[in-house]
């Protein structure tokens, strides 16, 4: 696999990881939250953590694979290289002087720390041949670029060289192969306090570092929800400063994203999102509305801070009412699938008997993350904070859907029975269900364990 082979779905998530926290609302350099940046996936130069000026130099993960003699793994290492932007004005008599800001009419430029995306794709490694750890060096050149401005001065961008290494190892474990992946910053060591500062340490760090691993001739095992036969081997896998998850289309097992932030298997960027806002724990609609409320002066400050911030402001300013409405959520036509909860005929109030006959909870369905969920569907319960306290006891448990209901306010409720409840069949017999909202369910896409068709408590 080359960097170009990364699927758009995986790349979208990896980009969100790469830029998580890069620049936060209100996207101005003067904002206190943007004075301390680069929060995730920072691999500092050796000695930086001990000297108190930077982060530890390495991250490591162990991935579990199953395959045969042809099993091979390809890695792509991705990170940001810091680029310091010096805004400079000419000095009388010759030379240049760095200043905080330059302005020419409505155009402004600030001295600021930018970042450059780096991707390093490694040649495939056949796992059966990995009898001893293999270390691959990584080198990224530094540099200086100068951009002449039309009138007030120039911009000088500088980058420090980076050095790192990726080490692969393989261990047999219960019939599986445990693949070790370590990424380590190997730049010049910081020997102690006072020998450098935080600005120099971060300039020599790998920022937002993460790895995309793809296996051919085999498959990865989910480390979050492993099959029973792999549970013991998964429990012996260790990770440091990262969280490996399956990535790509749900159900595929050929790609793992080794992420510096906590994710779930098969993460995805919401289809309503029209562009990066660099804060994936926030809601695009809220951030967009906040940008729209900024004054012209505040927007000018944001645009002067960073080209990526300028794109955010410009995109929000140009957003149409239709695009903004989409951020509130997509209303999909329920009539596109006759098995979903039907809409009431126009003009029929909820109390009319016709409203009752238009729905059938025993056969109606609801889409959850694009998966059709109806009676008999296997789900995992993920109660939200708004749930009753009693519902939280069922977090992570598997359940079987018994019915799908719509209330008079148009909200959907899914009735379930918990699979390991000894009285589950009894509850199903007389219709005593637990109810959850669709967004509190994780479709499993397969029959619930231990609930064969026709099984009954009366047998």
Automatic annotation (TrEMBL):
Protein name as catalogued: Uncharacterized protein
């Amino acid at each position: 696999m080359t960097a170009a082979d990364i699927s758009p779905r995986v790349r979208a998530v990896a980009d969100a990881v790469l830029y998580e926290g890069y620049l936060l609302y209100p996207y101005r350099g003067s904002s206190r939250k943007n004075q301390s940046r680069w929060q995730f996936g920072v691999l500092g130069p050796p000695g930086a953590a001990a000297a108190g000026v930077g982060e530890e130099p390495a991250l490591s993960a162990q991935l579990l694979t199953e395959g045969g003699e042809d099993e091979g793994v390809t890695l792509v290492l991705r990170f940001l290289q810091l680029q310091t932007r010096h805004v400079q004005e000419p000095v009388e008599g010759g030379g240049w002087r760095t200043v905080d800001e330059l302005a020419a009419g409505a155009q402004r430029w600030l001295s600021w720390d930018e970042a450059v995306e780096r991707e390093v794709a490694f040649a495939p490694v056949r796992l059966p041949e990995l009898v001893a750890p293999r270390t691959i060096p990584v080198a990224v050149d530094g540099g200086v670029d100068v951009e002449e401005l039309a009138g007030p001065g120039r911009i000088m961008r500088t980058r420090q060289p980076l050095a790192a290494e990726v080490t692969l190892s393989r261990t047999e474990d219960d019939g599986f192969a445990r693949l070790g992946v370590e990424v380590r910053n190997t730049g010049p060591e910081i020997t102690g306090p006072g020998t450098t500062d935080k600005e120099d340490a971060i300039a020599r760090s790998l920022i937002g570092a993460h790895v995309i691993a793809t296996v051919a001739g085999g498959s990865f095992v989910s480390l979050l929800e492993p099959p029973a036969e792999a549970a013991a081997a998964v429990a012996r896998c260790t990770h440091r400063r990262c969280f490996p998850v399956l990535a790509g289309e749900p159900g595929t097992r050929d790609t793992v994203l080794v992420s510096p932030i906590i994710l779930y298997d098969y993460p995805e960027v919401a289809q309503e999102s029209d562009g990066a806002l660099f804060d994936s724990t926030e809601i695009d609609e809220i951030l967009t509305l906040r940008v729209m409320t900024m004054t012209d002066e505040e927007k000018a400050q944001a645009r002067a801070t960073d080209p990526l911030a300028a794109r955010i402001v410009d995109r929000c300013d140009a957003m149409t009412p239709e695009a903004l409405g989409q951020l509130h959520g997509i209303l999909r036509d329920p009539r596109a699938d006759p098995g979903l909860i039907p809409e009431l005929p126009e003009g029929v109030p909820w109390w009319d008997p016709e409203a009752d006959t238009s729905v059938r909870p025993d056969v109606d369905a609801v889409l959850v993350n694009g998966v059709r969920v109806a009676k008999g569907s296997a789900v995992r319960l993920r109660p939200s904070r708004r749930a009753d306290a009693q519902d939280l006891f069922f977090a992570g448990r598997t359940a079987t859907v018994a019915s799908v209901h719509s209330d008079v306010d148009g909200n959907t409720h899914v009735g379930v029975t918990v699979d390991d409840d000894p009285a589950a069949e009894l509850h199903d017999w007389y219709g005593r269900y637990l109810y959850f909202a669709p967004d509190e369910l994780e479709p499993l896409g397969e029959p619930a364990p231990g609930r064969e068709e026709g099984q009954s408590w009366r047998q």
